Amino acid sequence: MLDEAIDKLYSKVLKRNPAEPEFHQAVKEVLASLRAMGDRHPEYADARIVSQMCEPERQIIFRVPWIDDNGVIQINRGFRVEFNSALGPYKGGLRFHPSVNLGIIKFLGFEQIFKNSLTGLPIGGGKGGSDFDPRGKSDDEVMRFCQSFMIELYRYIGEYSDVPAGDIGVGSREIGYLFGQFKRITNRYESGALTGKGLTWGGSLVRTEATGYGAAIFANEMLKSKNTSLDGTTVSVSGSGNVAIYAIEKVHQLGGKAVTASDSSGYVYDKQGIDLELLKDIKLNRRGRIGEYVETRTSARFVPNNCPWDVPVDVALPCATQNELLGSDAKKLIKNGVQAVAEGANMPCNEEAVEAFQNSEVLYGPGKAANAGGVATSALEMQQNAQRDSWSFDYTEERLTQIMQNIHRRCLETAEEYGHPGDYVMGANIAGFRKVADAMLAFGVV
Ligand code: NDP
């Protein structure tokens, strides 16, 4: 697309979607990559494909009333943004976090279009969630909230239409309550309507581990392209939720040493390497805070109210949330000799940070490529549900590894093809875009 057309479109996106900075940030990055296509694809411009892609196919906002343990009525807001179904049913997680608003869900849904395309699997892009905060709530409160959320959401989801999964604040407990209510309302055991299910009721082995494993595998592939690997490296990881825990596990399996983990209260630095069993016990069993780690591990120190980017490492894996790694953090990592950064979270590095990494020739893998392992394994869960089958851990992990290696290869090949060798952002955006754009062209104006 030509530069003037892109500038005009971006101005229009800003005007039509006011006060949604995260959505603007995500669109801006993709549009910047599409500039590199120049006038090579007039067919996309003629059909106004990019303009269509920036407008969600459907946005649903709804009230979620529920009663807390004190008998008080609480009101939250629910969202589902069905962004693009050119390649398959809308697919993307649900996020329960007090920071959730329409702009956040739109940024996540927009990113999901390209990410899902990159997996090579038949899934469109969507995202949803609520400003509900599961932290500090009892299981009963979480259940009542999930049931109320599903009373509205069930109308829009299904195996062939829209398939939600987990994200921040939505793990196996929440998916269980959501699926139970969906089954009850619809009177159908439609396993393919939600992913991230428990292993005894339609879930897939490796889905829990997939996003974190995939991010570490992607980092390893980036390093392998420079004839090195994760083996023997020191790695900083942010977050201590689903993605972070399994990123640490895979880093250790590949011979690296993850030395940090964090949550919104601060980070721990354990120079001997994070004790994963202890971390899992604190976070998965006890739903505790990261500071508890140093009560058991004397080799570790806790740094409150901070992210782990001042720790000298070879590789950084931001796995917590958007815009958690700023330009100033990137400069610290670069100064300390970081070689590679792979995003386990969605858009954790802000624009200045990405620019700093790319200008310093640090290998930088954007989330829509590096964290695609989660949604890819969700699509594998859907395949198993459709076959009424369940695959072994080893087979499913092998499929995940192949998918991550393919994504890595496609990013590099596409970046090269469009004149930006080694630029994973460019490669991911253009490769993801073209597949969706070609399908949209085939469908005509719909
Ligand atoms: P979890 O809820 O399991 O964990 C989130 C972690 O990030 C927690 O440690 C949390 O700390 C921390 N965190 C969240 N918000 C903030 C904040 N504002 N500041 C500092 N720390 C914060 O979520 P996931 O691990 O599933 O998701 C993490 C990231 O990965 C998100 O960006 C998500 O979109 C992305 N992702 C997840 C996928 C998945 O399969 N789960 C798939 C692809 C991407 P605290 O508990 O203190 O809030």
TrEMBL record:
This is Glutamate dehydrogenase. It comes from the Bacteria. Residues 204-444 form the Glutamate/phenylalanine/leucine/valine/L-tryptophan dehydrogenase C-terminal domain. InterPro entries: Aminoacid_DH-like_N_sf, Glu/Leu/Phe/Val/Trp_DH, Glu/Leu/Phe/Val/Trp_DH_C, Glu/Leu/Phe/Val/Trp_DH_dimer, Glu/Leu/Phe/Val_DH_AS, Glu_DH, Glu_Leu_Phe_Val_DH, NAD(P)-bd_dom_sf. The gene is gdhA. Gene3D superfamilies: Glutamate Dehydrogenase, chain A, domain 3, Leucine Dehydrogenase, chain A, domain 1, NAD(P)-binding Rossmann-like Domain. NAD(+) binds at residues 211, 242. The active site is at residue 127. It comes from Brevibacterium mcbrellneri ATCC 49030. GO terms for molecular function: glutamate dehydrogenase (NADP+) activity; nucleotide binding. The keyword Oxidoreductase applies. Belongs to the Glu/Leu/Phe/Val dehydrogenases family. Substrate binds at residues 91, 112, 115, 166, 378.
